[in-house]
Sequence to fold (561 residues):
Amino acid sequence: MADLDTDVLIAGAGPCGLALANMLGAQGVRTVLVEARDTLIDYPRGVGLDDESMRTLQGIGLAQQVMPHTVPQHVMRLVNGSGETMVVNDPQGEPFGWPRKFGFNQPLVDKVLAEGLQRHPDVNLRFGHKLTQLTEHEDRVEAEVTLSDGTTSTITAAYHVGCEGGSSFTRKWLGTEFEGRSPSTRWVVIDVRNDPLGIPNVYLGADPARPYVSIGLPHAIRRWEFMLFDDEPTEAVEDDAFIAKLLKDHVPDPANLDVIRRRVFTHHGRIAKTFRRGRVMIAGDAAHLMPVWMGQGWNSGMRDATNLGWKLASVVHGRSTADLLDTYTDERHEHAKAMIDLSMAFGTAIKPTDRKVAFARDVAARALNVAPQVKSYFSDMKFKPMPRYEKGVVVDVDTMESGKASAKRIRGRGFGIPARNVVEKNSPVGLQFIQPRVLVDGEVKLLDDAIGAGWALLAWGNDPLQLLDEKSRALVEENQIRTVQIFSDTQLGWATEHFKGTSSLLLGDTTNALKQWFDKRSVGVVLLRPDRFVAAAGLAQDTPRLVEATLRAAHSTSLEG
Fold:
């Protein structure tokens, strides 16, 4: 591929394209990122950033630069027309190493992502370049881009990813169905500086008089969103008097606001049937659109980039065959669809303007809130579907079959309980691994920072290298899989002496979180993918087969022949 202009061409310098370019650049993949606009968008758009996305930002070395543009623990309250709180969403804990929810200023975070590209000499960001044509060949993709001055240029790449948003040229070129619906309900968004309320967090107003949203954001920005009625023309939002009318019950002086923008939009719930065809893929809003209610549009694009980045790098560098890219749709489509469905359902609960329907909803909410389990279900965000890959780069630990996740045989072993009585949902395979703080070389770090990028083979109370046979040890070395031994910090002295000379990283479980994780799932070894999802897990003696089966699921070229 040396005669190509680049390894990967990305269209669209939104958050998904910028994140993907950072990931590829960090892995030495030549990348060209083209953006039709002359600059990044400089007005607020997305407002919610979750712990999974912050972990991704941590992985590309930009979490600390992003933090000043966020507000952690962004609490959301669903209130009715009387101001009564029906639901509180305030999830606690930091299973992935970060607070569960942040409010954030998207333009400034996107700017951090764009500036982060300067660290990578193999990444080139080109503004004023609009993708206008694609031609796929057996060994490359040819892309025609139109520059701001009207001239055209051709870029050749091994692979192309379209991240150009909902009107994506790339998605249309793929010819895939964009399934779902776009409700006709219109909403006006109003962003202002110098927040006139000063109240933090989020209020979703299920007010039949006029449903609304009020959001406190970093840097003293306040966002309101109001539903427009059918008889209210879109052009009315340009009228200051109309805006003041919308805000009269929400702010002391609606005529005295520093407005950043006002815009009408509709909510879409759509998803492409496939995210890949040959050498061409789509990600972010190009692949799926969802309503704003759960704040998951930005985060879903980050999940796409996180899933796709390591796979593209592995294929480009020849460590995996191109078949690995088929797992991208397999793994991401179902969860993106689940988030769309949840967001659409949440919107349905907020939007009723029929007072009888709203009254029935409020009565039901009061009844449900009596039960602590129900309150916890909403407060701890248990309703949010977590990504779980049941096919793709995952391994069935019972059969060591690649490409699907299951675990049935572990918990009962050795205790006189039939092994197959284990409930499959107990399996950690296909789930994102936790990220506690650990002790490494006398310093406390988050797990990902301690073990570094790439694949990692973790063993509790053991050295993974001691569990491998000659063949699997060679596979671990060839595929650059980091081996990690984990002990309670009381055992670090013994482990240091006992495994003297090993190349495995030694970690101290100072918070006991890792011991609890291995204990609850009754596993002793876990193989983590570069995106920190569990590819396989099993007992110590399973390790050699576990490694080979996982590499087979990842279409590793080290198994060819």
In short: The chain has a mean pLDDT of 89.
